[in-house]
Specification:
Keywords: Cytoplasm, DNA-binding, Iron, Metal-binding, Repressor, Transcription, Transcription regulation, Zinc. This protein is α+β, with helices and mostly antiparallel strands. The protein has six helices and five strands, in the order ααααββββαβα. The protein has a three-stranded mixed β-sheet, with no helix packed on it.
């Protein structure tokens, strides 16, 4: 999916939800959509400053917060970076991320079995999950086949 088609889909989601998709939010969305993997907020800020020299750290963090709340972007806490969700929509899906510690590639996976097992364990402990992002670190298949 292209960045532009993702933007159109995000605009439609915001319109249905009644959420304001401002110009700055759209710019940050497109910057993220054009990245292959995870990117830090200050790297995004540097790119945003090329479009809007007045952009400040608060500008990028507010936009990222909005994009995360809408489900368009996932925050990767362990590396303090953000990654585009390419299958957002009406659902509020649990997130499982595979993060390569060698090349930085981030793969989003969805395992209903994992989600069910985690929710069952939470229920057993009287815990209600309201938001789920599971991060697993290791080596991707490309890095595993590299000669040493």
């Amino acid at each position: 999916m292209t960045a532009q088609s993702l933007l159109i889909q995000a605009q439609q989601v915001c319109q249905k939800k009644g959420a304001r998709f401002t110009k700055v939010r759209e710019q940050v969305f497109l910057l993220l959509a054009n990245h292959e993997g995870a990117v830090g907020a200050y790297d995004l800020l540097a790119e945003l400053k090329e479009l809007d020299p007045a952009a400040k750290p608060a500008t990028i963090y507010r936009a990222l917060d909005f994009l995360c709340k809408q489900g368009f972007v996932h925050k990767i806490e362990s590396i303090n970076a953000f990654v585009m969700c390419h299958h957002f929509g009406e659902c509020n899906h649990p997130v499982q991320l595979l993060i390569c510690d060698e090349c930085g590639h981030v793969e989003e996976i969805q395992s209903n079995n994992f989600d069910l097992a985690l929710r069952a364990m939470a229920d057993t402990n009287g815990f209600t999950i309201t938001h789920q992002i599971v991060e697993a670190h290791g080596s991707c298949k490309n890095c595993q086949v590299k000669p040493q």
